[in-house]
Design brief:
The complex is a heterotrimer of chains A (333), B (183) and C (118).
Chain A (H helix, E strand, L loop, with lengths): L1 H36 L15 H10 L11 H17 L7 E6 L2 E5 L7 H11 L1 H10 L3 H24 L1 H7 L4 H10 L8 H14 L11 H4 L9 H26 L14 H23 L5 H30 L1
Antiparallel strand pairs in A: 1-2
Chain B lengths: L4 H23 L3 H21 L3 H26 L14 H23 L17 H10 L2 H22 L1 H13 L1
Chain C lengths: L3 H26 L29 H24 L6 H23 L7
The chains are: A mainly alpha (333), B mainly alpha (183), C mainly alpha (118).
Chain lengths: 333, 183, 118
Amino acid sequence: MIGIVIEALIKSALIAFVLLTAFAYLTFAERKIAALMQVRKGPNRVGPWGLLQPAADGIKLIFKEEVMPAGADKVLFFLAPILTMIPAIVIVAVIPLGPDVELFGRTIRLGITDLNVGLLYILAIASVAVYGIVLAGWSSANKYALLGGLRASAQMISYEIALGLSIIGPIMLAGTLSLQGIVQAQQSSTWYVLWQPLGAMIFLIAGLAELNRAPFDMPEAEQELTAGYFTEYSGMKFSLFFMGEYIKMVAVSAIATTLFFGGYLGPFVDKLPWLGILYFAIKTVGFLFLMIWIRLTLPRLRYDQLMAFGWKVLLPLALFNVVITAVVIVFVG
Amino acid sequence: MLPNIPELVIFLVLAVIAVAAALGMLASSNAIYSALFLVVNFGVVATFYLLLGAPFIAMAQVTVYAGAIMVLFLFVIMLLGAEQMKPTSHNLLWQKPLSIVLIILLLSISFYVVLGQGVSTGSDLMQNTSGYGSPSAIGTLLFQKYLFPFEATSILLLAAMVGAVVLTGVRKQRRRIRKSRRL
Amino acid sequence: MAHEWIFIGIILLFGTIFAAVPLVVNTIVAPKKPNVLKNETYECGMETVGDTWIQFKVQYYIFSLVFVIFDVEIVFLFPWAVAYKQLPFFAVVEGVIFIVILAGGLLYAWRKGALDWV
């Protein structure tokens, strides 16, 4: 019992540290990649190649004054960024980073834990992640913020259905909800992206919409809503929203890697289990690069187009994908 | 069998939180806060399911109740602009005594049930066989033994969807908009 | 309760601390010089007109209602998908019928124009 608690504490601290670092350097990478793709230089003053830029930003933000807008609901205004942040961290708990290893005479799972209802856990956390955003919009007592919050939450729930349906394919193929189980099932067959190309595509698109990232960043469209649900936020609260968004980016990339791209699998993983983390990281970074690339390439959708795409294209396609997978499994076996 | 001590402590702490959240929901004058207290309550109930060894039900509770249904509630509150309760003009004359009678009835029934059967430690209810309450066991049960209720659920959901579309009268609204655009 | 859930409980605790500590540090070290103009609702320089918390369009409500229904469907389909390979053929067909009935509901809402954003 005590051993488990200590193990959990150490792992949680490590994951939190990794996610924080990933957040910091993801913002840096995004700015640098955006600059390079637009033939600019990007951040290059703080430290060698601008590598200390995230640290400078963090220090600046923590010393910034927080403005509490008049008429705002003070309690919920304070609570909303925290409620955005918690699901982003908690959702990564079920993602396996590698096979089990022996350490100090104990078998340790690489990754926080593994649940037999793992994917349902992810769905549950994703469905409560709406609260932070909708409450941020409401508590600000600002029309832009309220509209942005409502838009964001309507968009998130719309694409959540397609997201939930797209992961039914891998569940059927693997016959388990545990993410570790799904990765192991891919070891004996092959990466599920080959069996579920449509499912993987729907997952990625719906994942982007779930993150409110470009081209689905209507809720924070600068031209019409100033900044959407975080218009009134400043200082550390403002950066918590950003932290939440970028950590969720990492989480969605990691889940896509696990479900469709073999997770930590790669050559020699069964002999050197620690190599799994490396493969996992490489695949996840690939997805993150893809997300940044998409943001820099595609223009923003109009809101009615966005809702129509979610309900009239993505949802029927996802339903179709489930039925087709069911039929194919019955006939091919 | 004595109940597991850490589990009992967790249960008691959560029970206090659940009751406090329920009271907060009733007492809060702001409808948004009421809804959030209800979310807390649902979350605690989900943890109770976990303690009972039913992770699938717990996660379904969070997904459907704390996630989907409460977001619907929040939307309704925000869309109506009904956050602040206005003091009601008509007094609740007969509802108050009736509520007291109903509370007494509920309490006496629960006391009767608890005292009549004794407090169960749950050991007879929980079949701690491996795979009890696992998703695969639920799937097999749902699609073999409880097939008819399951299919009935789909009809129920369909009826709910049709009802929602009819009651909100989208069509009429659209026609009105089209007409106003023509003008 | 299986011990896997202890990990979830602890990371939940960690996540809360992780999110709350920066805010607390911020409130301690940040300067506080509020004034009436600074705390005004931000609308790009214009003074705000009217109440923010007013009645909104009903469309959001319809979408969230249809969402609830499909969310329940997904939760039902998960155990079906898990047990899929152990189920007899006839249970598989039942699952597909379940999907088709709800797709019918979606089609109905679509035809009635409930999914159009007006």
